Amino acid sequence: MTYLTALCDDETAELNKTEKILNDYEQEHPEVEFIIERFESADELIYRIEDKNYAPDLIFMDIYMPGPGGVSDSLGMDAAKKLRDMGSRAKLFFLTTSGEFALEAFDVDAFQYLLKPISQERLFGALDRFLEGEEEERKRYILLKKEGRFVKVAVNNLVYCEAQGKTQCLYFADGREYRQCMTMMKLYELLSPYQEFVKIGVAFIVNLEYVDSLSAQDICLTGGRKIYLPRGAYKGLREQYFNYFCKTC
């Protein structure tokens, strides 16, 4: 498996060290390839991702990096929050000198929080856990037909679906869009084994993992999309929403 990998640290020596550990991991795991891009500031990484040409699978990021005027600040955590607001589902590995932000790391769904100096053994262990999770995620796909070919689509990246006539429009966290000629009911049958997907009225299927807020009038999704609820839909949706997150907590 190939993973687009971003390394973000203001110290060249730390970038070199992390890259070497990743290269060593590749040597021991020939089925894994990290395509590495290096960034010396959080702003540089954000700018690259905002350009929509770059969607890393893994991000290894320092928390303390110089802000304006060279003052050390928690720009890595700020960048992580912005990435999540942008819809990024990248696995975040925080590499830092302090445990001060460990609790905040949960708020941005960080995969791992490692204290420097980073050892090969600890980073290898984190990567092993990541790959074990990937094995489970690879089971979470549906098959769609696109341009005469069957395409395997990862459901964890699917934010929502919208019916437009006889065409279903699927919107993904990385900005991709698929248009599929099938009924909404048929698409919902494909997604129904995954409890995070709920049907809203006759036009929408939504992934609860991407719901930022819910009210009696609408739901707001990660990335800013707002979907207005049909009359009478709120009570049932609210129950599904709370039941889902109670089970996954």
In words, what does this structure look like?
- The protein is of the alpha/beta class.
- It is built from seven helices and 17 strands.
- The protein has a five-stranded parallel sheet. It has a five-stranded antiparallel sheet with strand order 12-11-10-14-13, with helices on one face. A three-stranded antiparallel sheet has the order 15-16-17, with no helix packed on it.
- A hairpin with a 2-residue loop joins strand 10 and strand 11 (167-172).
- Helix 2 (42-50) packs parallel to helix 3 (75-85).
- The longest helix has 18 residues, at 120-137.
- The chain is globular.
- 25% of the residues are buried.
Strand and helix map with partners:
Elements: E1 2-8, H1 12-28, E2 33-39, H2 42-50, E3 58-62, E4 65-66, E5 72-73, H3 75-85, E6 91-96, H4 102-107, E7 112-115, H5 120-137, E8 141-146, E9 149-154, E10 158-164, E11 167-172, E12 177-181, H6 184-191, E13 197-200, E14 204-207, E15 211-214, E16 218-221, E17 226-228, H7 234-248
Parallel strand pairs: 1-2, 1-3, 3-6, 6-7
Antiparallel strand pairs: 4-5, 8-9, 10-11, 10-14, 11-12, 13-14, 15-16, 16-17
Helix pairs in contact: 2-3
